Amino acid sequence: MTIHLNKTCLLGSAIGLSALLLSGCSSVNQVLGLEDTVNYKSTVAGDPLTIPPDLTQANRDVRYTAPAGVATFSEYAASQTARPAVGQTQVLPQSEDIEVKRDGDLRWLVVKRPAEAIYPQLLEFWNDQGFTIHSDDPRAGLIETDWAENRAKIPEGWIRKALGSVIDQVFDSGERERFRTRLERVSPDTTEIYISHQHMVEQPTADGTTFRWVYGKEDQGLNAAMLARLMVYLGTDVGTASARVTEAEKVETRPSVQALPDRTALALAENFDRAWRRVGVAIDSAGFSVEDRDRSSGDYFIRYLDVDLGQKIEQPNIFTRMFGGKNTAEPVPYRIHVQEQGGTSLVQVLDANGVVQEDDTAKRILSVLADHMRSN
Residue 297 — very low, low, confident or very high, per pLDDT cuts 50/70/90? Predict the structure, then answer.
């Protein structure tokens, strides 16, 4: 837990006492498994999303509101209590058009609805979870949130409750996440939904004088918990959503990802469908800028700025803005190409014209993808 003092005069010794008591409470909560609750607060302020009236609205009935859950499924299911029934019955209406698929630790949803109907619902979903939207691209089927802090990771205690908003301004979890949602159109009336996230942790510098943000490991359990919440938001009841995500068929073995010694390429011991899915999730998890994709040709169209080339990146000043100046380095368009070859799949980096790249930049891109595919 990271402690930030906005003003040194703020509450003086009371803050020190609260920090001590809260740290003790933290260890208790960890033992009891109560500290992984999800309660995000975006670090970027934004207006509530407005969905055009001609697009499908998400169901606003309270029975379909995503509840406060936890990051592990046993806790997620155990933390839910029976909701008030409609009339005298306890049977909740269920949406039977959502299926959960699983491949190793990777889970995704298959929804029997058009992508055009789901897309605006996803925008509202993330807004309801406490996020602001950093970017959304209907053409590429991508929605990315801004960084947000999970305030539930700050330990609870009577001191925090007593001081309320003052404590919220002083204490920081020292962790941030941002999520990316990707839609794949399987057919005109069927859509696949993938959720991935990037994680950052605040750590002290070597000399201990300040802090810096570093990337942490992606938590597939958190992705799955968000999928369960999304299922509830789209119309599945809490118990069914938790059970379906937990019990989805699992393939125990992780994919074999090997760098070929004689060429700049990755070999995946999987057929095209599984390789295409794994590469797509790796691209999302790595945070590559995706412009488009073409499953029929096996291409993901990305932009990548190789910072290891030593090119100078400058923020535009007033003169460059006035006279149309640009940064000296800009992201370059590439294709991530997936091709099946005799039961295995080959992953290569192509330039914008479709020419295979063998340089150091291509090797770095493939290395990042391989790391993310092995961890998923």
Answer: very high
Q: 54-80: per-residue pLDDT in tens?
A: 333 334 333 333 444 444 445 545 554
Largest Cα–Cα distance in the chain? Answer: 70
Whole-structure pTM value? 0.65
Nearest to 231 by CA among 36, 69, 84, 6: 69
Please tell me the total count of domains within the chain.
2
**Per-residue model confidence as pLDDT tens digits over 7-27:** 334 334 333 434 433 343 333
Residue range(s) defining the domain that contains residue 363: 254-376
DSSP 353: T
In eight-state DSSP terms, residue 356 is B
Helices (H), the chain: 13-32, 73-78, 115-128, 158-163, 165-170, 220-233, 238-247, 272-286, 318-322, 360-375
139 plus 42 within the same structural domain: yes
- Please tell me the distance from the alpha carbon of residue 151 to that of residue 305, in angstroms, as a whole number: 33
